Amino acid sequence: MLFDDTYLTIEKPAEGDFRDRGSKFLSFAYPINSEGDIKPILAQLRTEHPKANHHCWAMRLGTDRSVFRINDDGEPSGTAGRPILNVLLSKNITNIIVIVVRYFGGTLLGVPGLINAYRTAAEEALKVANVVEKTINDVYTIGFEYQHMNEVMRIIKDDNLTVLNQQFDNACSVKISIRKMQVNRSISKFEKVENVVIKLEL
By CB neighbour count within 10 A (0-12 exposed, 13-18 middle, 19+ buried), where does 84 fall? Predict the structure, then answer.
Protein backbone atom coordinates (compact mmCIF):
# COMPACT_ATOMS: atom_id res chain seq x y z
CA MET A 1 0.00 0.00 0.00
CA LEU A 2 1.26 3.45 -0.86
CA PHE A 3 1.76 5.75 2.10
CA ASP A 4 -1.24 8.06 2.11
CA ASP A 5 -0.27 11.57 3.16
CA THR A 6 -3.58 13.30 2.62
CA TYR A 7 -6.77 13.51 4.64
CA LEU A 8 -10.23 15.00 4.20
CA THR A 9 -11.75 17.62 6.48
CA ILE A 10 -14.19 20.50 6.14
CA GLU A 11 -13.11 24.01 5.29
CA LYS A 12 -15.49 25.91 7.56
CA PRO A 13 -18.55 25.34 9.76
CA ALA A 14 -21.76 24.11 8.11
CA GLU A 15 -25.33 23.57 9.28
CA GLY A 16 -28.22 21.29 8.37
CA ASP A 17 -31.51 20.14 9.85
CA PHE A 18 -33.96 17.27 9.84
CA ARG A 19 -37.50 17.03 11.21
CA ASP A 20 -39.45 13.94 12.21
CA ARG A 21 -42.86 13.82 13.93
CA GLY A 22 -42.48 17.25 15.48
CA SER A 23 -38.89 16.77 16.69
CA LYS A 24 -36.31 19.14 15.22
CA PHE A 25 -32.73 18.00 14.75
CA LEU A 26 -30.35 20.89 14.00
CA SER A 27 -26.89 19.79 12.92
CA PHE A 28 -23.66 21.76 13.15
CA ALA A 29 -20.34 20.62 11.66
CA TYR A 30 -17.10 22.34 12.69
CA PRO A 31 -13.48 21.79 11.66
CA ILE A 32 -11.31 21.17 14.76
CA ASN A 33 -7.59 20.68 15.38
CA SER A 34 -7.58 19.34 18.93
CA GLU A 35 -9.85 18.06 21.68
CA GLY A 36 -9.47 21.49 23.29
CA ASP A 37 -11.62 22.96 20.50
CA ILE A 38 -14.66 20.91 21.52
CA LYS A 39 -15.66 22.52 24.84
CA PRO A 40 -16.03 26.11 23.59
CA ILE A 41 -18.05 24.94 20.55
CA LEU A 42 -20.43 22.93 22.76
CA ALA A 43 -20.73 25.79 25.25
CA GLN A 44 -21.59 28.20 22.43
CA LEU A 45 -24.33 25.92 21.05
CA ARG A 46 -25.77 25.37 24.54
CA THR A 47 -25.98 29.16 24.92
CA GLU A 48 -27.66 29.51 21.52
CA HIS A 49 -30.08 26.60 22.13
CA PRO A 50 -30.78 26.56 25.89
CA LYS A 51 -34.21 24.97 25.46
CA ALA A 52 -33.00 22.04 23.36
CA ASN A 53 -33.42 18.61 24.99
CA HIS A 54 -30.17 17.06 23.76
CA HIS A 55 -26.80 18.17 22.33
CA CYS A 56 -25.41 14.90 20.89
CA TRP A 57 -22.13 14.76 19.03
CA ALA A 58 -19.33 12.77 17.47
CA MET A 59 -15.83 13.85 16.62
CA ARG A 60 -12.83 12.46 14.77
CA LEU A 61 -9.30 13.73 15.10
CA GLY A 62 -5.89 12.94 13.75
CA THR A 63 -4.58 12.61 10.24
CA ASP A 64 -4.54 8.84 10.79
CA ARG A 65 -8.22 9.23 11.81
CA SER A 66 -7.59 7.17 14.94
CA VAL A 67 -9.10 9.40 17.63
CA PHE A 68 -12.86 9.55 17.98
CA ARG A 69 -15.38 10.28 20.69
CA ILE A 70 -19.16 10.13 20.84
CA ASN A 71 -21.72 11.54 23.25
CA ASP A 72 -25.41 10.57 23.35
CA ASP A 73 -26.22 13.35 25.87
CA GLY A 74 -29.12 11.49 27.47
CA GLU A 75 -30.51 9.78 24.37
CA PRO A 76 -30.70 5.95 24.52
CA SER A 77 -27.20 4.50 24.16
CA GLY A 78 -26.09 4.05 20.55
CA THR A 79 -28.92 6.11 19.02
CA ALA A 80 -27.18 9.47 18.59
CA GLY A 81 -23.38 9.74 18.83
CA ARG A 82 -22.74 6.45 17.03
CA PRO A 83 -24.94 7.21 13.96
CA ILE A 84 -23.29 10.66 13.70
CA LEU A 85 -19.84 9.04 13.90
CA ASN A 86 -20.84 6.49 11.24
CA VAL A 87 -21.53 9.36 8.84
CA LEU A 88 -18.01 10.74 9.48
CA LEU A 89 -16.55 7.26 8.93
CA SER A 90 -18.47 6.69 5.70
CA LYS A 91 -17.32 10.06 4.33
CA ASN A 92 -13.77 9.41 5.60
CA ILE A 93 -13.58 12.87 7.17
CA THR A 94 -11.37 13.75 10.15
CA ASN A 95 -10.53 16.80 12.30
CA ILE A 96 -14.24 17.46 12.62
CA ILE A 97 -17.02 17.54 15.19
CA VAL A 98 -20.69 17.25 14.29
CA ILE A 99 -23.18 18.26 16.96
CA VAL A 100 -26.90 17.58 16.57
CA VAL A 101 -29.19 19.69 18.75
CA ARG A 102 -32.60 18.09 19.32
CA TYR A 103 -35.82 19.81 20.21
CA PHE A 104 -38.26 17.10 21.32
CA GLY A 105 -41.59 17.31 19.54
CA GLY A 106 -43.68 15.26 21.94
CA THR A 107 -43.75 12.00 19.99
CA LEU A 108 -41.25 9.25 20.82
CA LEU A 109 -39.36 8.17 17.70
CA GLY A 110 -38.11 4.82 19.02
CA VAL A 111 -34.57 3.53 18.54
CA PRO A 112 -34.68 3.10 14.71
CA GLY A 113 -36.29 6.54 14.37
CA LEU A 114 -33.62 8.20 16.50
CA ILE A 115 -30.76 6.49 14.68
CA ASN A 116 -32.22 7.60 11.35
CA ALA A 117 -32.82 11.17 12.58
CA TYR A 118 -29.32 11.71 13.98
CA ARG A 119 -27.68 10.11 10.95
CA THR A 120 -29.77 12.13 8.48
CA ALA A 121 -29.20 15.41 10.36
CA ALA A 122 -25.42 14.82 10.31
CA GLU A 123 -25.57 14.04 6.57
CA GLU A 124 -27.51 17.25 5.93
CA ALA A 125 -24.77 19.38 7.53
CA LEU A 126 -22.07 17.58 5.54
CA LYS A 127 -24.00 17.97 2.29
CA VAL A 128 -23.50 21.73 2.47
CA ALA A 129 -20.00 21.58 3.97
CA ASN A 130 -17.05 22.18 1.70
CA VAL A 131 -14.87 19.06 2.05
CA VAL A 132 -11.20 19.76 1.36
CA GLU A 133 -8.19 17.51 0.99
CA LYS A 134 -5.18 18.48 3.08
CA THR A 135 -1.70 17.03 3.08
CA ILE A 136 -0.01 15.63 6.16
CA ASN A 137 3.10 17.68 6.74
CA ASP A 138 6.13 17.54 9.02
CA VAL A 139 7.62 20.78 10.30
CA TYR A 140 11.39 21.23 10.26
CA THR A 141 13.66 24.05 11.31
CA ILE A 142 16.67 24.44 9.04
CA GLY A 143 19.57 26.32 10.62
CA PHE A 144 22.36 27.61 8.37
CA GLU A 145 25.01 30.30 7.96
CA TYR A 146 24.15 33.50 6.19
CA GLN A 147 26.42 32.81 3.23
CA HIS A 148 24.42 29.65 2.42
CA MET A 149 21.08 31.44 2.30
CA ASN A 150 20.76 31.26 -1.50
CA GLU A 151 21.28 27.50 -1.50
CA VAL A 152 18.67 26.96 1.21
CA MET A 153 16.12 29.29 -0.38
CA ARG A 154 16.59 27.60 -3.76
CA ILE A 155 15.73 24.19 -2.27
CA ILE A 156 12.63 25.69 -0.63
CA LYS A 157 11.57 27.22 -3.95
CA ASP A 158 12.39 24.14 -6.07
CA ASP A 159 10.54 21.78 -3.71
CA ASN A 160 7.65 24.20 -3.26
CA LEU A 161 7.93 24.14 0.54
CA THR A 162 5.87 26.38 2.84
CA VAL A 163 7.87 28.78 5.01
CA LEU A 164 6.23 29.20 8.43
CA ASN A 165 8.83 31.40 10.01
CA GLN A 166 12.25 32.77 9.13
CA GLN A 167 15.02 34.81 10.69
CA PHE A 168 18.14 35.98 8.97
CA ASP A 169 20.94 37.05 11.29
CA ASN A 170 24.49 35.82 11.54
CA ALA A 171 22.87 32.51 12.32
CA CYS A 172 19.85 32.01 10.08
CA SER A 173 16.93 29.67 10.46
CA VAL A 174 13.86 28.84 8.44
CA LYS A 175 10.90 26.90 9.76
CA ILE A 176 9.26 24.97 6.94
CA SER A 177 6.39 22.59 6.41
CA ILE A 178 7.16 19.59 4.18
CA ARG A 179 4.60 17.18 2.85
CA LYS A 180 5.34 13.76 4.38
CA MET A 181 5.73 12.06 1.02
CA GLN A 182 8.57 14.37 0.00
CA VAL A 183 10.37 14.74 3.36
CA ASN A 184 13.24 12.38 2.52
CA ARG A 185 13.89 13.99 -0.84
CA SER A 186 13.89 17.56 0.50
CA ILE A 187 15.89 16.79 3.66
CA SER A 188 18.60 15.02 1.68
CA LYS A 189 19.00 18.22 -0.40
CA PHE A 190 19.33 20.35 2.76
CA GLU A 191 21.89 17.92 4.17
CA LYS A 192 24.23 18.81 1.31
CA VAL A 193 24.41 22.43 2.49
CA GLU A 194 27.55 23.11 4.54
CA ASN A 195 27.14 23.29 8.36
CA VAL A 196 23.39 22.97 8.12
CA VAL A 197 21.39 21.98 11.21
CA ILE A 198 18.09 20.18 10.56
CA LYS A 199 15.61 19.75 13.38
CA LEU A 200 12.22 18.01 13.26
CA GLU A 201 9.66 20.01 15.29
CA LEU A 202 7.28 17.85 17.29
Answer: buried
pLDDT tens-digit series, residues 150-167: 999 999 999 999 999 999
Domains of the chain: 6-134 (3.30.230.30), 137-201 (3.30.70.120)
Q: What are the C-alpha distances in Å from 44 to residues 12, 25, 65?
A: 16, 17, 26
Answer whether residue 21 shows pLDDT above 50. Answer: yes
Please list the alpha-helical segments (H only) found in 81-148.
81-91, 110-128
Rounded-to-10 torsion of CA 38, 41, 46, 49? -140
Question: What single-letter amino acid sits at 167?
Answer: Q
Q: Tens of pLDDT along 30-43?
A: 999 999 999 999 99
Which residues of 4-89 form beta strands (DSSP E)? 6-10, 14-20, 23-31, 54-61, 67-71
Question: In the predicted model, is pLDDT for residue 174 greater than 60?
Answer: yes
* Amino acid found at 158: D
